[in-house]
């Protein structure tokens, strides 16, 4: 499929997406529940009636202890998993009810993901890692080159562009992953414990970079963390306890 066709398909899909619920709400949930059946026949209620609103152009943090439900929630918000009950409203429609193909398109064109373990291609340079996703999406060379350089510059890695992951620090590798995530200009970035494997100073640096992307480029970012030192930097914090949002 050509890039133009891809763009058209995405446009058609999102023509129906008008400004959602509130003017500034990009994503929201209604009474979201997620149960997991486990081997012995019992059920874990990982999420219980979650109602949250994610504001456009802000950094939202989901915090909570291990097992509180952060990953389960961010996976459902990012259309990687479906709830047992409830809705996820994105762009004014309930994305839990869409076909897998439509959910794939939303993930591909509208969303981006940054995970705890960075998962860069070890044989590729920072530049090639960022370029790779754009190449798969069939962007023409000039645009790919421009965006790749821009994104690496915006995460402060212009001098590391042609280094391989093994030649970079953990924080630098995570910044490459962030550059890769922002390259296709997603509406929203989901970051699940992106700082968990970094030392405190580097972790703070990555979160400040998120804050910068939000302030400078009006990106919307949702990140999970169990680290209380991160929360001051967020525009909005939701705390999860045992599958519920608490004040
Ligand atoms: N696939 C699964 N099958 C069964 N139970 C699960 C599954 N995934 C998650 N759970 C359970 O759901 C609850 C929430 O898990 P989740 O991974 O969302 O927590 P978390 O806050 O992200 O934890 P951590 O910070 O340790 O990653 C936990 O009790 C967990 O054991």
UniProtKB/TrEMBL annotation:
Note the PROSITE patterns from the entry: ABC_TRANSPORTER_1, ABC_TRANSPORTER_2
The main enzyme category here is hydrolase
Q: Which residues form the ABC transporter domain?
A: 27-247
Q: What is its EC number?
A: 3.6.3.-
Question: Which InterPro entries does this one have?
Answer: AAA+_ATPase, ABC_transporter-like_ATP-bd, ABC_transporter-like_CS, ABC_transpr_LolD-like, MacB-like_ATP-bd, P-loop_NTPase
> Care to name a GO molecular-function term for this sequence?
hydrolase activity
UniProt keywords, alphabetically: ATP-binding, Hydrolase, Nucleotide-binding, Transport
Does Hydrolase count among this protein's keywords?
Answer: yes
Q: What is this protein called?
A: ABC transporter ATPase component
Q: Which organism is it from?
A: Ruminococcus bicirculans
